[in-house]
User: Fold these one by one.
Assistant:
Number 1:
Amino acid sequence: MLLILLGVLILHIIILILLIVSTAASAWSVADGKGTDLWYSCITSNGGYHCKPSSNEDWIQAVQALMILSVLFCFFSLIAFLYQLFRLVKGGRFFFTAIFQILASVFVMCGAIIYTVMSPDDRAHTNFGYAYVLAWVAFPLCLISGLIYIVLRKKE
Amino acid sequence: MLTFLALTSVALLGIVPEQSQAIVIYTGWERHALVGSDVRLSCSFFSWRWTSEDVSFSWTYRPDGSRDTISIFHYTRGVPYLDNKGPFKDRLEFVGNPGRRDGSILIKNLDLSDNGTFTCDAKNPPDIVGRPSSVRLLVFENVPIQAGVITGAIIGVVLGLLVLIVVIYYLMRFLVARRVFSLSVRSVSGLWPAALCQSGFCQGLELKPEPIPGMDTCVAKLA
């Protein structure tokens, strides 16, 4: 039992770290020496590393909001898990934790989908960076973690 | 003595305004407008002298990214002269009131090529020493969204909904608990031991004890 709990907790923490790195790293779209993300677009020219704030369009602000919300909800679900671990009745289910975790996965999915659809179509030169891939990896992990919490029961 | 004082005061009155006899011109700092709309560029000045008959206003324009300045408006001796050859041909209108030191102009039907710096220079003879003031015009296709407004709105709405749902959940639990309690009290009007009734236990629950004749117990009825 302790092993299962530990495994679930480690999975949760890994998901939280993935989400934070994905939200903050400047690598959603990469071209040669140029990385764009939700907040800045940075260019490594021979003068150095220059960053300017990314465009203010509505879709990028929506993606920013959804990624931040997913990080927040994953964090809330971690706190709810630790709280329910000590206060839940025997045989109870971790409902709050599961709800927050599933909401977090839904937000990551929405954010990644919006970014995929609306990012500028320049496929000849730009590819998707690792932060984008991390967001897509975090979504199923988060969903699975949420489902595990629904199934998990508190034993003695 | 008195003449000495009079002479010094006249000299002071003559000297002090000399130094502050610069004309100060006020325009805005920046103006934002949409393509196709009109914008009013205001210009007024402060001067220690009365507004003279020969007051003059002139506006010059420097497009963004260019180093040439062209003159687009001049008002002198009571007659405004508008641009009739340059980029603002037929689009300028003088809406100022020189008598009230206002030299504002109105530019109609803006275009993206009107982005630039407009400089107003006013002269109020004999008060002519002053620095012209510039206003920057920014023309947009559509109203730009500020960075972070939509982000903040989405986050605020979702967190607000979350707080609302949690509050409603706990409120419902609290209310249901109370209703369950009050229901169970109303349905009990059975036999209570006499000692309990006399000690005032029933009074708190709006029940009053009625002793059953011939028995040691009493019945609690709703008050």
Number 2:
Amino acid sequence: MRNALVSAENLQLTLKTDFSSEEQALTIKNEDLKEMLESNKESLKLEAMKRIVGLIAKGKNASELFPAVVKNVASKNIELKKLVYVYLVRYAEEQQDLALLSISTFQRALKDPNQLIRASALRVLSSIRVPIIVPIMMLAIKEAATDLSPYVRKTAAHAIQKLYSLDPDQKEHLIEVIEKLLKDKSTLVAGSVVMAFEEVCPDRIDLIHKNYRKLCNLLVDVEEWGQVVIIHMLTRYARTQFVSPWREDAMFDENNEKAFYDSEEERKVEQTRPYIMDPDHRLLLRNTKPLLQSRNTAVVMAVSQLYWHLAPKHELSIITKSLVRLLRSHREVQYVVLQNIATMSIQRKGMFEPFMKSFYVRSTDATHIKTLKLEILTNLANEANISTILREFQTYVKSQDKAFAAATIQAIGRCATNISEVTDTCLNGLVLLLSNRDETVVAESVVVIKKLLQTQPSQHSDIIKHMAKLFDNITVPMARASILWLMGEYCEHVPKIAPDVLRKMAKTFTNEEDIVKLQIVNLAAKLYLTNSKQTKLLTQYILNLGKYDQNYDIRDRTRFIRQLIVPNEKSGALSKYARRILMAPKPAPVLQSAFKDRDRFQLGTLSHTLNSQASGYLELSDWPAVAPDQSVRNVEVVEPVRLPCIFILFYFLKIMLVLTYICVHVESVSESESEENSDDSNKSSSSQSEKSSSESDSEKKKKTLKNKKLQQLLLIIMTKYILIHIVLSISTQFFVNCMCSLLHLCVFLACQFDAVSWHVHVSLQASSPVFVPETSHELLHRMTGKGLSAQYRFTRQPCIYGNSMVSLQLTLSNSSDQALENIHISEKSSTGQNIHRFNAIERLEPQASVTVSMGVDFNDSTQAANFQLCTKEDEFSVSIQPAVGELLLPITMSEADFTKEQGKLMGMNESSATITMKPENVSSQSVNRKVVSVANIGVIPSSQENIYRFAGKTVSSGSLVLVSVALKDPDAVITINTEKTVIGSMLLRQFKTALTNSGP
Amino acid sequence: MIHSLFLVNASGDIFLEKHWKSVVSRSVCDYFFEALERATEPENVPPVIPTPHHYLINVLRHRIYFVAVIQSEVPPLFVIEFLHRVVDTFQDYFGVCTEAAIKDNVVVVYELLEEMLDNGFPLATESNILKELIKPPTILRTVVNTITGSTNVGEQLPTGQLSVVPWRRTGVKYTNNEAYFDVIEEIDAIIDKSGSTITAEIQGVIDACVKLTGMPDLTLSFMNPRLLDDVSFHPCVRFKRWEAERILSFIPPDGNFRLLSYHVSSQNLVAIPVYVKHNISFREGSSQGRFELTLGPKQTMGKAVESVLVSSQLPRGVLNANLNPSQGTYTFDPVTKLLSWDVGKINPQKLPSLKGSMSLQAGASKPDENPTINIQFKIQQLAISGLKVNRLDMYGEKYKPFKGIKYMTKAGKFQVRT
């Protein structure tokens, strides 16, 4: 005894010394590290930092080294710097004051020309969770959000979430930044900013409207993690913005409960008004579909849940294969996917039925995987496949994994209740299992049989007898209790056996489990009521045993039963009804899937997996009854594409943008000045876009020919230069100074050159068309096109597809009764023209029409462009014959320039004719109108009253075409000066007819 | 999103922790250990475990649990997929993903984790980008680094991260330009007692090892693309082109990657390359059981079946097995009751067999079910579905690459019920 005490003491002592020595070692080691960090050698510092990171990784405390480490934050060695960052982010929260020492380094790094350094500085700065620096972070984020590098902008999006979690009061400012970043067109930024949106302001759905289409279109190119976040966000968005696509087929879908609630009236309304999917809704479905082929399981799952929640029911089947494919993946992936399939398979058996065999259990599966597969197989069971499934289940029952075998028996029970054809077969199978050697299997069988028998007790008295025989061999309490309950409940079917069982139970009462004892009391009471002659004494005996039981539940129950069934003077009216209380027919339990109510959660979410609401879960809203205004998603301005890598080009583009803006601005000012004396109104047209364009045209038409020129010109150039200066000085901060001055020089030169060119090459100054005719020409008649008809119209706008192309607008409509697919222009063109084809139209619904634009290079000739318009089945040869006037683009120049240029184009380049004008055509307006309707040329302001001048250039070669009309009452002389004499003479002929004819 | 990551080894110790937001105490893992204790097998730990304030999502690979701590709603697959990507990256960097390898390279691991997640949201997971940021440790580089003091950390922003081909690094140069593609198919099957097939399907992958200079643009076409029923692609594959022409067109990442995985349509009958004759029986009352197993080739298209490995989980009542293999070696683990028989190559003239007796626990009743037999095998130079690559072309670069395509068929989850 004494020895033991001594040795214990010794042990304690050694323990103590061990501990202290370890502590000592640690501090010594830390001293060591401090020394290394303070040395001059980079390699020593690095080594020290590596050891410190090792300590952090192990979860050891290294916070006392903070001062020594933070000194190295400005190190030149990148690896050392990075490791210091790791350390800082880990301990800054604990050592706030010291952490502030490092802030200035990051602020400096935020201005570094290297985007990698800018980004990592922002990353670390925003990861330091020190509340004092919130304003600095805010400033840094705002600045980074406008950075030229998308990588830095991405980091800014991440920083938003960090700042928000540090200081939620900044929400409003952060939302502003999010709004700005949502407009970003870089695929790099999209995922991160949507993540920030989800975290900071998931309810601000209005921020998404304008970016919805962009996000849909970018989606395929976004990195995979971003895709998941965006898809989840868009799912929520779509549920608030579009009407349900399920209404129509709800009638065919017996599983959908909605159909049940729909009243007759509503259905009638639906039938008269067929559902048309919002094109934006369709866009989302179409653009997410290819992502089902992603290698990232999270993306596939995200798309699947999107289809599940948004797609029309008949399109749902495309996700099945992909989901089944995921089952080949890792165990954890299988687990989540199977859970989601289980929920889906309850509502839509048909989706997974063809893949039933993929859910067959393998002996190597983990238990939770097996159980889920079993669940799905049970959900899929129907009259047709039940025999296959039951055969499969037979194998599972024999499994070594007994928990799984028990689950299988439950599943058999569910199949039996759901499919009445096999109830008997299942019951027989289960009875056979009662002789199984394994207790859990037997117990589970008994429990399931009990449930099954409750549904149809009368026919199965022999099963109850069989169970009574087995009773002695069954030891699992739950199973024993179940059998006893069955005996009691159906004692009338087994009048001879039940009392005997009770007799046996009376003997073993004291050794039974509580749950069994309760059922013995129960059985005794029931038998007493039905067969009191045989069982009266037994019951008394059992009730006495129960009265002195250790468990108060049993004592309570016994007392209650005794009062209820044994009539005495104290018992009230209740004992009269004892029989009716105890022997009341009980409803059979409903065996249903554990996944029955999981669909209240959005699929693929954590909440769905756990079947309880996780914090931060965003409820998926119901479809709106009426779709909100869809025009909110329209985007007006199409900005030019930015090329992130090539900075210089970017700058130039920006400058160009400013230039055009100024030009337009000045023009519109001059327009508004001269608007008063106009009274012309235009025919309103049907389509909205056309309307707006014609409106702007009429405005331009109203432009009277006032003088503006030289001073204004100078003014424009001045403003241009000043603005460029401003723009540049804003953006120079990222740029090396010399580069900038070079740019300045370039721009200045360009401006100078530009200014000079205003005098020398005036002809190249294009202007917008004065008048755009509404008339469309037939391209393909619906009879020849087998339902497809096409019309074209010259938009008179500079073509966006090529400088030498004439831009055309094509309206395709489907007047047949079935949808046309894949409408496109075939690759081969019979004539030599260069044609820019429109993108193939995948599908054109009956009675629908679509407008597309295309460009044709006519090479300044009126030769028709022939090509094939194809649908999926047919090809139609069509041709576009341009009027000569459409081969021109309007330009503006001063009157002086006009005469000067005209002077150069004399002789054979000039063609003229004299005509007699109708008196009503003589007014300046009507002349102008007639001329510009024939040809797409611009009006030149004229100082002489009866001479009208127009100028244009040919689209392909850019040769000048100058037209002047001199009125000499009643005659007029039309003069056309151009190098292209053919065009000149053809134009002349058309002008002649136009001006001599009366009418508008 | 992902708050913290804990790595737990097989004996239940946390050997690495990393936090991306505020530090979460490692005591949160106690909930995980509880679940671990409750699970009978390591695989039975539920992947998602709720705790009062956090949610733990774990994956088990190479006998290491990667436990991610998250605080709010997030698609669980997002986290699971990411964790697997972390393991793949470790494997790519260190060759193996073991506790020892991670501990040895703890600095690189930390640097990697730092780059892969920012504030819990994945930042760079593409192996090509990561390798530019942090160079994988090699013996040579370690030596050079210690001498010159240079580092493993790249100084430049990987251009890939900004370009339209984020998966490929720029400035790739090789003296030997080569591109190898391995078409590997796996047969998943369940064969029932009588030898008839209950379910069988073929899953395949095309793994590539591409070492080509510059920015090559490759196209790969199949003789019979119709066979492919369901496919998933590496992000580099142009989906539109596949939809329209059934041609794989892509700018490959540098190095090893999985180009494609596919599923062969279930309409096609699956050829089962091996058959098993078995006779495993226990007699009531006797403490002996018979065990007889014979393997033979079935539909192998004239190719040899190699690296055959048979394993079976015998019933718990079996004490020992005394068997005699006609070829190869067998082992029986009396604790786990796992019988495995390394057969090697099947010789069609002399079929391999394993015969003998099993001794049962005295007095124990006869096990009421027979064990399942799992079979692994390999067949070289054969894609069992009949898939054939037609041609591989390269555009965009001038040199002539060396191209190679290899076919292989393996057993996936191939089980025989007895």
